[in-house]
Write a structure and sequence with these properties.
The radius of gyration is 21 Å and the shape is globular. About 35% of the residues lie in helices and about 15% in strands. It folds into 2 domains: about 45 residues, no CATH class; about 220 residues, Type I PLP-dependent aspartate aminotransferase-like (Major domain) (Aspartate Aminotransferase, domain 2), CATH 3.40.640.10. It is α/β, with parallel strands linked by helices. A 7-stranded mixed β-sheet has the order 4-10-9-8-7-5-6, sandwiched between helices. A 3-stranded antiparallel β-sheet has the order 1-2-3, with no helix packed on it.
């Protein structure tokens, strides 16, 4: 009885101060429960029932909920009381982490830019692409999902996500996912800074391209001076077996955007990895760079990738 009363009080406060529609939706889906503990793949609710988490935070919890190594790394860093200054020192751990991530990405990827969300990573990719190419046009694939900031929304054609938030960025155009003819015609205009695309469309219905698609896309983009940007926010960090889903297709992107699973489910984190995109272009965005603080987190990012498929 006391538990039910506490749940109703918490719901009322959330409805009043945060998002009433979310509470209503969870009630309709019968998902409005209180969790006592979340560990690995198991969610334990207050009445003792165990729920297996097949949602995984939309690819956030690739390492499971509250992984002990990640928790230990965070605790160690907090106990160390190290620098948390954004722009007044050189964070050496950022270099170590960038080296680990770039080596696992492979290909032409060799530089890292740190951010705090997938949407912010996509926004940075837009800025880098425009600064490097001196072009303003952006291409995306129909059915894409790239985030909910205005720049990211501009790369999604579905009015469900965009309605009420316009106007979007101008000079953004969609092409059919997995189809080359339309993309080739668009690229031939030489007005597009980047083609930003997911290697596997998640929100679009788990859509996979043909085996040679991304190799041909890369050749077309390089021929016309357009950067190929892979959005691996949902597919990066091994959910498909390889570190990056694009590695299945031998994709050779100029930039990669990752987030979600790299947070460990606890600390919002994102990375942009760049190849031929530019050091000059980086200057336009470097003021927003965020650097990892924990040596344990750097070592753990490498260690958790060891022994995984791919």
């Amino acid at each position: 009885m006391q538990l039910a009363s506490e749940t109703r009080a918490a719901d009322a406060l959330y409805e009043d101060r945060v998002n009433p529609q979310w509470v209503k939706l969870l009630n309709v889906l019968e998902m409005n429960v209180r969790y006592r503990q979340c560990t690995g793949t198991e969610l334990i609710i207050e009445d003792g029932r165990r729920i297996l988490d097949f949602l995984s935070g939309y690819c956030v919890h690739n390492a499971g909920h509250n992984h002990p190594a990640i928790i230990e790394a965070i605790k160690n860093e907090l106990d160390r009381r190290g620098p948390g200054m954004m722009q007044s020192h050189v964070p050496e751990l950022a270099g170590e982490l960038a080296e680990t991530l770039c080596s696992r990405a492979g290909g032409r990827v060799r530089k890292a830019f740190f951010a705090s969300s997938g949407s912010e990573g996509v926004e940075a990719a837009i800025k880098f692409s425009r600064a490097h190419t001196r072009r303003t046009g952006l291409l995306y694939a129909d059915g894409a999902f790239h985030g909910l900031t205005c720049g990211a929304l501009s790369l999604m054609g579905d009015p469900f996500w965009r309605e009420g938030f316009g106007p979007m960025l101008p000079e953004t155009e969609g092409v059919p996912f997995g189809e080359l003819a339309t993309l080739e015609k668009k690229l031939a205009t030489r007005k597009f800074a980047a083609f930003i695309v997911e290697p596997i469309q998640a929100e679009g219905g788990i859509r996979l391209p043909a085996g040679g698609y991304f190799q041909e896309v890369g050749e077309l983009c390089r021929r016309q001076g357009t950067l190929l940007v892979l959005d691996e926010v949902q597919t990066g960090m091994h959910p498909t077996g390889r570190f990056l889903a694009g590695q299945h297709y031998r994709a050779d992107p100029d930039m990669v955007v990752m987030a979600k699973a790299l947070s460990g489910g606890l600390v919002p984190t994102a990375w942009n990895w760049a190849g031929r995109a530019p050091e000059g272009g980086a200057r336009s965005a470097e003021r927003g760079s965020r650097a990892p603080r924990s040596r344990d987190a750097v070592e753990d990012a490498g260690g958790r990738s060891e022994g995984r498929p791919g």
